[in-house]
Design brief:
The protein is about 50% helix and about 10% strand. It contains 11 helices and 6 strands. Helix 1 packs antiparallel against helix 2 and helix 3 crosses helix 8.
Length: about 250
């Protein structure tokens, strides 16, 4: 008899999550031709488990996926789920100046491949000097470097910890690489991700680079608060966590 692996997650409940999961199924079908057949089957089993509680056996899939790994709760949970579901994982971590020693240590413990982000410091200093938001540019530069390394490693799938890119953009093909935004794909909220990751969590928003930007231009805090509210409306955050994150932004 099939036995669902210990994924540290339960079947989803609530109309919003079920709505997102049904669109994830549609997105998966659109990406089916770009996926290894066994990878497609296991991802569908994960979705069906979240939708209906249907059990499945997590035998090895025979494919290693890359994971965009930051050392935080979301990417750690994504890595844990993929491992438990039978995938090999190859974490990729961007070498950024704001990474603290504990984060780098977690990356090394997971076997992360470190990748440089060309022109990163110059681009961030330019934005801070212009009193402009940094998160969008930071994310795009990091993901470009991570995607390039995933292709070099020969992996067909890059997993991210993105909670907001749900529905039809939760999984898609990009220049020969399938991007899988796993928390959004499985409609996992922050509370579930914390439980799956099994690491300590404090409701802190952003990183030292963003906090520098806040000090340079306090007005850009509104963009971070808008991001938190989008995650709240999407059901990715509980009101309690969202409130604490907003308090953290305002305190910086």
């Amino acid at each position: 008899m099939d036995a669902t692996p210990d994924l540290r997650m339960r079947p989803a409940s609530g109309e919003v999550k079920l709505y997102h999961l049904r669109y994830s199924l549609e997105a998966l079908e659109r990406s089916a031709e770009a996926l290894n057949p066994e990878t497609y089957r296991r991802l569908r089993e994960l979705l069906e488990y979240r939708l209906t509680g249907r059990a499945f056996e997590a035998s090895p899939v025979g494919e290693t996926v890359a994971v965009a790994f930051s050392g935080g709760v979301d990417s750690t949970a994504a890595l844990r789920v993929m491992k438990a579901a039978g995938f090999g994982v190859s974490p990729i971590m961007a070498r950024l100046p704001q990474l603290d020693d504990d984060t780098v240590r977690r990356g090394r413990e997971e076997g992360a491949v470190m990748v440089e982000v060309p022109g990163y410091e110059e681009a961030m200093e330019d934005l801070i000097g212009k009193r402009a938001p940094v998160c969008g540019r930071c994310h795009s530069m990091v993901m470009k470097a991570v995607e390039e390394r995933a292709r070099e490693l020969g992996t067909g799938v890059l997993v991210t910890g993105d909670m907001l890119s749900f529905g039809l953009i939760s999984i898609y093909e990009k220049d020969g690489l399938v991007i899988l935004n796993l928390p959004a794909f499985l409609a996992l909220d922050k509370g579930e991700l914390i439980e799956i990751a099994g690491v300590g969590y404090r409701p802190i928003f952003g990183c030292p680079l963003l906090w520098r930007a806040f000090r340079s231009a306090p007005g850009i805090k509104k963009f971070s608060i808008e991001r938190i509210l989008r995650e709240l409306r999407a059901g990715a955050l509980t009101p309690d966590i969202a409130s604490k994150l907003i308090e953290d932004v305002l305190s910086r």
